[in-house]
Amino acid sequence: MRHRLTTAGVLAGTVVLLIGCLPGSSKPTATAPDVRVSPMPRPATARVEARDIYQTVRLTGVVETYEPVEAKSPVAGRFLPSSRVRNGQSVRREAVIGTVDPCPDPASTGPGPTGGPSPEPTAEPECEGRRRNVRSPAAGVISGLREQDVAVGAAVAAIQPPGHHIRLSVEDPAVLFHFTEPPESGKAEILGGPSGLTVRYEKRVYDRDSGQVSVYVSAPGDVPLFPGLRAVVVFVTSVKDDVLTLPLSAVRGRSGQGEVVTIDEVGKTRRVEVTLGEADDAYVEVSGIESSVEVLRYPLESDFGA
């Protein structure tokens, strides 16, 4: 009996379902849920903005001590060290470290060749020179100081300046154009050590034998450094104030002429040519586009075919 009731129920349900599916049926048995399609997100855009453009040069190098500086004799004669100066002593720049006597006393006359009385000394021409001071060319520790006969320009001592400087290798010769008027200073990072150090430009040196060009900067005296440490120095070589710019990512081309992709309110894009100027690591100077126009910040190569 229970089996018959179950079979009847299934058949009744089937009839109801078939009736609902018959052509002309006024009401469907199921309603599709509402489906909402989200609009495509608007791509990231940028507009022309006024900002400063910084031209920078990044060089790497090594920390070194300064080369000793020679103190030289201004005249020929007998160099006599100052009684107040000793080797290993620190001296200031322009300190008197000795004198040169251009008219030293002649040596005493010895016995004659036969053991008889010495011959009368010949008259020496009168020396009209006067003693000349020798001054330290730099501040530092002095060495090599001794009494000696010297020629004009001969070294009489060496001065070891305190502190360190950084020798930076110039790998790309084109970088030298940025040092036509060298920057006064730069920012240094000692690898594995302190960073943000202000360093002062010293000189540019060209080695004829190797063809290597080096830039030297002085390191701060209050920072503990050691010869051989590696360093990175960044120079700001020029600044253009308050110029119209776009992000580098928005521009195709890097010098002279370039292109951007504009986008209007309805999302239509168009390729536009612009004139490019100076650039830094993030922005480039542009002209030929209104500040109210939006451009794609990250255009694809296919966007430039629009």
UniProtKB/TrEMBL annotation:
Region of interest (Disordered), residue spans: 85-132
Organism from which the protein derives: Plantactinospora soyae
Entry GO MF terms: efflux transmembrane transporter activity
GO cellular component, one term: efflux pump complex
PROSITE patterns per UniProt: PROKAR_LIPOPROTEIN
Superkingdom in the source lineage: Bacteria
Gene3D superfamilies: 2.40.420.20
Name of protein: Multidrug efflux pump subunit AcrA (Membrane-fusion protein)
